Structure formats: C-alpha cells, structure tokens
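Researcher: Going back to the complex we discussed earlier. I've cleaned up the inputs and rechecked each line, so this should be the final set. Can you rerun the prediction on the complete assembly and write out the structure?
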Amino acid sequence: EVQLVESGGGLVQPGGSLRLSCAASGFTFSSNWMSWVRQAPGKGLEWVANIKEDGSAKYYVDSVKGRFTISRDNAKNSLYLQMNSLRAEDTAVYYCARGVDWGQGTVVTVSS
Amino acid sequence: DIQLTQSPSFLSASVGDRVTITCRASEGISSYLVWYQQKPGKAPKYLIYAASTLQSGVPSRFSGSGSGTEFTLTISSLQPEDFATYYCQHLNSLFGPGTKVDIK
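Model: Rerun complete. Updated structure for the full complex:
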C-alpha cells in the first residue's frame, strides 16, 4: 500500500522557518518525481515545487522562489520542503504528492 | 508562462445529469493534462491522466478528452458521490482554478 505521510507543520511567526518532511512507502520512491502542493483555506490547489527522481532538477512557483527549497533523500524514502521567510500568505495545508498518490497534508499557519 | 483556466467555476446539477467541465491552456500542452476530484477536507483524487486515460478504479462514467489547448472532463450520469471540486493540472505543476459541482 502506498503511503505518503507529511509532518513538520505548525504555527510560525512571519519571517520564521519550518521544514516539512514526507515519508514515502509502498512504491519505488527513487523512480518518481515528487511534488509539494498547498491549499490555502477556502482556496484552490497551488503547486509549490517539484523535484526530479535523482534530485538533479527542481522547480518552484514564482511566489516561493528564493524562500523555499525542495529536497529528497532517496536512501530514506523522504521528501523535504525547507520554508524560510514565511509570510501570512503561505498559510495552507501542504501536501506531498506523486500525482496518483497524495499524503493527508500538514497544516502550516503563519501568524503573529 | 502557461496558464490554465477552467469553466464554469461553479455548476449546479442534479443526480443523473451529464456534466462537462472545460480546461483551457494558454498555449499548447499536447496531452499533458491530469484531472483530479477533491472533496472537502480530503486530498485530491487522481481521475484521468494524459488527458483521456482513466485511472484504474475510477468509474467509467468519468471521461476526458482534448489535446493542445482545450480539454474536457465529462461525467456521463452524475452520482451523489460526484459532488466535489474538480481541478485540471499540467505536468505535475500548474493547476487550474477548479470547478465546484454542487447539488441543484
């Protein structure tokens, strides 16, 4: 059974940092592009970043470029999202996804 | 940059209705389009990939078509469990704004 389990969300002040993690199991993690997708309260889905199978290519939505970094550890079957300089508009549920499979999401709230 | 639009943004329909949702790309994207269904408080569900290929386990009342810049998702006979929001997505990145299907 495929599982994607996100962790690391929480409440953080504007300007702060968080690191999200996603533990993957049930499929060959190292053979899949992986993505982070977020959904602000009451809003639609927004793709945030994705990373190639071997980590050699990474892409970001313009609004997070220079602030967020996606990475992966294929030995640990894990995906990460380092989020710095957080803003109120980054408040959302963050999902780890490989297209056909999604995690349950982790909530990030940026507020003072 | 490629943009995706969806129409309508909201539709009200009855059980048994045929429903069609359109996704348009600002430039040609071949068949690199996926459709998702999302219900409140849940992660999206993968319905259709490569514009027209039904994901395993998805009911056959769902179908997708199109290529280039215009794509459609059709539900041939709307069922109670189909009331949800539908999103198109291009190449594991950009999403359309969504279409909410509500009960008339």
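Model: Worth noting: The mean pLDDT of chain B is 96.
Researcher: Good, that matches what I expected from the previous run.
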